[in-house]
Amino acid sequence: MPILDEHTLDFVSKSPEQTRRIGIRLGGLLKPGDLICLQGDLGAGKTTLVQGMAQGWGALDSVSSPTFVIVNAYRRADETQFFHMDAYRVDSASEGAQLDLDAMLDAGPLLIEWAERIQTILPAERLWISLEHVSEEHRQMRFAAHGKRYDALLADLRQSMFGV
């Protein structure tokens, strides 16, 4: 488990199931206001990770990529929501600004795929996860925490994954 520093964690997932399990662990730690940004090419495992996060968070709804609708909202039994945005089709930061990120963050966790496309309008404090396709089954994952909440979230995830 390479720990670059307390703000960063590198991990190689060896299967889609392992990527989903990491997502489940992270999803169980999420709170309203949390911003999780995903970056990675097509097939890098972003949606698989999101499926795990939604499951760990307790979503009652099945997860699909919101490429064409831009944002999906998932509910859990207590009626709180988890927002899943796909910024791939958002053409500019100004277009992204019209999506009212603050309202989503007030209501629940917000996870954004292709976050680099609207990075200039995102809050500075966030957890940024870069995924890279290494081989058919392996994915390189880098978790980078920006801000105290996300340092704590990453520390909790590290504890959940590795017991350290």
Verbal overview:
The chain is an alpha/beta fold. The protein has a single domain, classed as 3-Layer(aba) Sandwich (Rossmann fold), CATH 3.40.50. The protein has five helices and seven strands; from the N terminus they run E-H-E-H-E-E-H-H-E-E-E-H. Strands 1-7-6-2-5-4-3 form a seven-stranded mixed beta sheet. Strand 3 and strand 4 form a beta hairpin. The longest helix has 15 residues. The N and C termini lie close together (10 Å).
Quick overview of this protein structure:
With 164 residues, the chain is an alpha/beta fold.
Provide key terms for this protein.
seven-stranded mixed sheet; 7 strands; alpha/beta; 5 helices; 164 residues; Rossmann fold
Radius of gyration: 15 Å
Class per helix and strand makeup? alpha/beta
Please, what is the CATH homologous superfamily?
Answer: P-loop containing nucleotide triphosphate hydrolases
Rounded mean pLDDT score: 90
Determine the number of helices (DSSP H or I, runs of at least 4 residues). Answer: 5
Q: Quick one: biggest sheet?
A: 7 strands, mixed
Span between N and C termini? 10 Å
CATH architecture: 3-Layer(aba) Sandwich
List low-pLDDT spans. Answer: none
Number of domains: 1
What is the H-and-E element order? EHEHEEHHEEEH
Question: Helices and strands in order, then pairings?
Answer:
Elements: E1 8-13, H1 16-27, E2 35-39, H2 46-57, E3 71-75, E4 81-86, H3 93-97, H4 101-107, E5 110-113, E6 126-133, E7 139-146, H5 148-162
Parallel strand pairs: 2-5, 2-6, 4-5
Antiparallel strand pairs: 1-7, 3-4, 6-7
Helix pairs in contact: 1-2
